[in-house]
DNA sequence: CCTTCTCCCGGCAACGTTTCCGTAATTAAT
DNA sequence: ATTAATTACGGAAACGTTGCCGGGAGAAGG
């Protein structure tokens, strides 16, 4: 069927272009010639478009041609160049996940949920850790308008009123899904937990456990969860007729050494708090260290409650009472919503999903 | 300077093509027209190649032309399409990190190190979690020959003798750097810790603490660290004249329920172990739960030592003695080596980096 | 005045796909 | 038998870049 002479010529031509490419690409190396549609087409004596359509199982191609093409493609381990397709189709099958921190079990589990469902749907996941640095977040987000990612799942480190970089992203047609640390005024999906109620219930629980001087350590006064949780804390105190004392509202500076002295000073003052409600698990751990250092009896002298997804909370001494968020499910839901926005924009209606956290009583609150 | 009529015409033409593109791309939406080199060129009455060169600060372009171009690019928030460049240049400025698990502080810190240094060097990071599934790892790795990533940093879940998928990757010219769970026979950088010595010293330490019936729980008998650590464990027993009992070598089935009963049965048999040396922190946590459930006194009846990077090890009850690996530094080193291989292939010599873990004595071993 | 050189810029091909279109050959409908 | 429809394939443009050329204008040197 295939004429001999042209094949020989093809072989020579291919060899030449092969070695040229090799030099151009790597200088030296054992890497074989890249195999692409053109290569498959020439080996099969078909056109590039026919091969392309055959591989995509197009109805325009006969059954046995498809088989020939697919067999050869499998044999040669053909892998389509994703960037060529992306360039043509304006979609990369890639999403970005942007988180403030990774040494935090909440984000770990969320990332796991994100990654798992994204991969199940055929998406690749680029990960960006902002290290609580708003400038870095802006920088990263601004560069996402270039088509590298089809959509973004983000938990903010920027203040709630400083999100024009995300507005810009949205205007450029890149869907954004927020989770946990969210923004307002966006026509996009926002996935949170019931922060206000959790903080309210947590604070009230501390009161019920006998605390009257309850401090709160928040991660920031400029992000959504910081505000919501603070408000829940305040309202619970008010409802119990307990004065809200500003000096007992500790605000993290995102520097663990600073935070440690902040908490330490608060706990060592005269008439010190008898209850502490922390918003992130690292602050709870810092508190453990402080209590050990200064021999503060927990839960005797100080009761501690923290938002946390630590797998070791029940093994600590004393075991840590926690408000635990459904982190994994949040990650899953975020990606599901994002992919819906990407693939069925008509059926996508941005929604505010609000999931419930669960309060787990343990020894640190005198259980 | 610029003639008025042509500009007006351009505007009309641009508007038309804009609305057309909008319909083609999204159907509907507030997204503006994408801005690319062609657009910049037409606005500036320059050629595409001139604009391209100006943006890359080429010496072929005059200073004021560069300024005009860059000013407009900044004003319009021009972002070069990364995939077009990747297609042209055969490099994506993207690396993949493949890890078996993410609910494991070792990998968390490693990922942090990887991500941080990769971004510092201008690389993007795709993350793949294999969930200890070799088939999934193979699937993922096989699809990495298509140019999506320039290189791969991997900690294996596949058995040490089943790595042809990685061979294939290397043959295709994609550099691979292994860390922690590594493979043999590859001409590439391998970053490990001194697993044999750590296991030897850890086991000897347990002996010194009075243990005579020491069990070892390994993550797998088919991966590098499993083998090395087991051998260190065995050697330490032999050197102390203690018999190595096969039934005390527990091998994880990568299913936490199964592992729990495995360890539970081992600890409940008559003449049970008085020491346990676990290779991953999850097994240590399982052991804590078992001890609590069955009221096994730790460290009285059972001493526990584990490889672990848990930030809460010192806060557990009892605090956990650990062998802690320099996870963050491993991640850093892995990426540094990979980028060296990518950018200075001439100066890159694959090496076997071996870092030291540190044994931290705490209460779980009777400190 | 002619040559040579430098400076600046534009044209064009190429990267690997996808997809719109055209068309030849075969089959079905009239 | 002529036309219409269908099947199966190829040609070519396009996606947004980069980089090799080539060339015109002006300056410098003879």
Question: How would you characterize this protein structure?
Answer:
Two copies of one chain form a homodimer. The first copy, chain A, has helices spanning 4-26, 37-44, 48-55, 63-75, 82-89, 105-120, 134-142, 164-171, 195-208, 224-239, 256-268, 281-293, 327-343; strands spanning 94-99, 124-129, 151-154, 176-179, 190-193, 214-218, 249-251, 275-278, 303-307, 321-324, 352-355, 358-360. Chain A is α/β, with parallel strands linked by helices. Chain A has three domains: 4-87, Orthogonal Bundle (434 Repressor (Amino-terminal Domain)), CATH 1.10.260; 91-193 and 327-356, Response regulator (Rossmann fold, 3-Layer(aba) Sandwich), CATH 3.40.50.2300; 195-325 and 359-365, 3-Layer(aba) Sandwich (Rossmann fold), CATH 3.40.50.2300. In chain A, the strands form two sheets. A six-stranded parallel β-sheet of chain A has the order 2-1-3-4-5-11, with helices on both faces. In chain A, helix 2 (37-44) packs across helix 3 (48-55) and helix 6 (105-120) runs parallel beside helix 13. The longest helix of chain A has 23 residues, at 4-26. At the A-B interface, helix 5, helix 6, strand 2 and helix 12 of A face helix 5, helix 6, strand 2 and helix 12 of B. Chain A binds a DNA duplex (30 and 30 nucleotides) through residues 34, 36-38, 46-50, 52-53, 56, 59-62, 65, 80-90, 147.
SSE layout:
The structure is a homodimer of 367-residue chains.
Chain A: H1 4-26, H2 37-44, H3 48-55, H4 63-75, H5 82-89, E1 94-99, H6 105-120, E2 124-129, H7 134-142, E3 151-154, H8 164-171, E4 176-179, E5 190-193, H9 195-208, E6 214-218, H10 224-239, E7 249-251, H11 256-268, E8 275-278, H12 281-293, E9 303-307, E10 321-324, H13 327-343, E11 352-355, E12 358-360
Parallel strand pairs in A: 1-2, 1-3, 3-4, 4-5, 5-11, 6-7, 6-8, 8-9, 9-10
Antiparallel strand pairs in A: 10-12
Helix pairs in contact in A: 2-3, 6-13, 9-10, 11-12
Chain A binds a DNA duplex (30 and 30 nucleotides) through residues 34, 36-38, 46-50, 52-53, 56, 59-62, 65, 80-90, 147.
